[in-house]
Amino acid sequence: MARIIAISNQKGGVGKTTTAVNLAACLAEAGQTVLLVDLDPQGNASSGAGVDKANLKRSIYDVLCRDLPLSQALTPGAVPNLAVAPSTTDLVGAELELAPTLAREHRLADALKEIEADFDYVVIDCPPSLGLLTLNALTAAHTVLIPLQAEYYALEGLGELTRTIQLIQRRLNPALGYEGVLITLYDARNRLCREVAGDVRRHFGTKVFDTPIPRNVRLGESPSFGLPIIQYDPTCTGAKAYRELAREMLARHNPRQITRSRTA
């Protein structure tokens, strides 16, 4: 059964979508079968993973609001082993449409049951809010990964997200856990970045991934070409960091898996 990871932080500009796309791509490159679910109405994860949104006939909106089987909404990503459940602007109205629906927080969880045996990982890109779409992601997920920018405002709003997670654990998804905290937009030359990263590690301890994601111009460029960073510039520091993050995650889940992925 797939390990379902929601990538969430209601604070914008922290590298959430960049992480969703590139972590999914690197896990796929390592030999895992991966589904990337784009729950953000902006659809940036879809285009960043190689999906041509202009020619889409079905999307995650149809799954959540029109009862379309999830398998019928999937499209191949830019990397072998990567499938995408894409988003379009139709998703903007999903929260209003779902509001009167029975068990509306479970729509994504129910949809994933059909296909989760076909994947090793499901990575969900959440919108930068704590609305019904994010609630669906956290209700469906086994764990939540929190990207956190290396700046002093990094912890701002994190308390609200933590309270939401605790509420979901009590009422909707008791098994929801923390995949970890990922430090993003990190510059080792910057004293402030180093201090903030140290504070985050002291606060969250072993929940923080050893691998930080650096500031990297190539990471910002790759979405405009519809490519994950490992295809756009496979030797840049951003590509190396996300590959290392994928290896670290695989090692946490299965210490033997990391050896297999390196020798595959």
Write a structural description.
This protein is globular. The protein has helices at 16-29, 44-48, 60-66, 94-98, 107-112, 132-140, 158-171, 191-204, 217-221, 229-232, 237-253, 255-263; strands spanning 3-7, 34-38, 75-76, 82-85, 121-125, 143-149, 177-184. It has a single domain, classed as Rossmann fold (3-Layer(aba) Sandwich). The protein has 264 residues and is of the alpha/beta class. Helix 1 crosses helix 11 and helix 11 crosses helix 12. Helix 7 links the parallel strand 6 (143-149) and strand 7 (177-184). Strands 3-4-2-5-1-6-7 form a seven-stranded mixed beta sheet, with helices on both faces.
SSE layout:
Elements: E1 3-7, H1 16-29, E2 34-38, H2 44-48, H3 60-66, E3 75-76, E4 82-85, H4 94-98, H5 107-112, E5 121-125, H6 132-140, E6 143-149, H7 158-171, E7 177-184, H8 191-204, H9 217-221, H10 229-232, H11 237-253, H12 255-263
Parallel strand pairs: 1-5, 1-6, 2-4, 2-5, 6-7
Antiparallel strand pairs: 3-4
Helix pairs in contact: 1-11, 11-12
Defining key terms:
alpha/beta, Rossmann fold, seven-stranded mixed beta sheet, 12 helices, globular
